[in-house]
Amino acid sequence: MGYLTVLVAFASCAIFAVHCTWAGNKDLSQIISKNLARNRLSAKLLESPLNESAIDAITDSLPFDLPKSVKQFYLTINGIADASFNGTLTLKETWIIPGYYILSLQDAVETYNQLVESNKMADDTEQENRYNPDWFPVFASGAGDYYIVDSKDGTVYLFMKDVDTPDKPDYASLEDMLKDHAEDWSRGLIHEDKENMIYSVREMSQIELEESQEVSPEYRQKRRVARHGGRGRRPTRRRRPNHRTPILRFPCQLMPAICNNIYTAIRVNRKPTSLTRTTNRSRINANRRAACGHVVRRPGFSCDEYPFASTLQGGRGSRAVLVPARENNRQGGILAGFYRRNNIKNGGRYRQAYS
């Protein structure tokens, strides 16, 4: 399959008008063609398109009808099957857009069930109940993040494992998402470095812009002191409240692989226990790619990194290992809930327990 499958699928569309009326076909074709032009496995490993009866059979257990755009997507091309991750492929080799690969429909259904299951476990821990059961995953990072399509209205959300549940869509439709990424490819805004890592120049520029506009807590404190001190007078000293730094602890009996990674990162690799949160999603995406891109993917597992991608200490140099996907989904809910309960905003600090 793979390489020839992709070429035949789009050739048949062009010649026989098979599913060519779908608005996303042209942009999906361009994204795949750009990956093929760079000899990327992300396109070569794509499975054959599915027919309608196969799609109906695979999605029969879902509590909703598959969104029309998603059905058209899988009629055009299937994703990368879990079986292709045979212990030799790294995540970065499978990404067809920066940081994400296409789930095969079979794996998308399995991933959906795991994410919904993680919600059911929320009552047993301090995990946040975050995943909307109306959402269906189509693209995956291999590290607990997904582009999902709302089954009710077809909008697309970026669901990240350790970020607050999105309250508004990132794209109006799957077609709009594909168009956006196809334009980045066609305009030369997707770069590939010497290590075969692809990234968006536009996203990196957005990170720099957003972070330049963020004011550090220390700078805000200096401004506050200067404002209240007034005209060179020494500001009145006030007793500082005795706020303790929040400490994050995971239920290690439920996620031993996650806890082992954190413990090893801190005790062996000397990674910090004092962490600073970032809510910049572009930065989190970039951190996750830098940390997990070199990890070899295996079915049923996903990449876990420490320090977390949602911290300023995360990114390149983090300790990244494979952990059971269920543990990773649960960890994201616990971390997001910890941020919310302790009111840890952008720039907020906390400590990670490791014993």
Structure description:
The chain is α+β, with helices and mostly antiparallel strands and 355 residues long. The protein is 41% helix and 12% strand. It contains 13 helices and 11 strands. It has helices at residues 3-16, 25-37, 41-44, 52-58, 68-76, 91-94, 105-120, 174-186, 201-213, 217-229, 256-267, 281-292, 325-341, and strands at residues 101-102, 135-140, 146-150, 156-159, 190-192, 198-200, 247-248, 274-276, 301-306, 319-324, 349-352. The strands form 4 sheets. It has a 4-stranded antiparallel sheet with strand order 1-2-3-4. A hairpin with a 5-residue loop joins strand 5 and strand 6 (198-200). Helix 7 (105-120) packs across helix 13 (325-341). The longest helix has 17 residues, at 325-341. It is globular and about 60 Å long. The N and C termini lie far apart (48 Å). Mean pLDDT is 85; it is low at 14-18 and 225-233.
